[in-house]
Amino acid sequence: MKLKIESHINGRFKGCNGSTVFELTNGQKWQQAEFKYHYSDRYQPEVKIWEKNDGHYIGVDGENDLVKVRRMQ
Fold it and tell me: How many CB atoms lie within 10 A of CB 30?
């Protein structure tokens, strides 16, 4: 995996619901591209976006799983 982006969630992070849009403080938006659900409630956690052969994955600081995402225009 190759690290592509380091940023923070813009505002409150409430976890993943299957179609979550991750709005970052750098202005980018990424949408969840696989179904995973978990609840979290944190303010502006750090995120890292990784690139793998099959796409991009987001890791939110303090969460255990990476979630597959796609960049929104």
Answer: 23
Q: Which domain does 37 fall in, by range?
A: 2-71
Say if residues 28 and 58 touch (Cβ distance below 8 Å): no
Total domains present in the chain: 1
Identify each DSSP E strand in the chain by its residue range: 2-8, 12-17, 21-23, 29-32, 37-43, 46-52, 55-60, 67-71
For residues 36-55, b (16+ Cβ closer than 10 Å) or e, as one string?
eeeeeeeeeeebbbbeeeee
The Cβ of residue 25 has, within 10 Å, a number of other Cβ atoms equal to: 13
Dump pLDDT digits (tens) for 1-28.
899 999 999 999 999 999 999 999 999 9
| Mean pLDDT score across all residues of the chain | 95
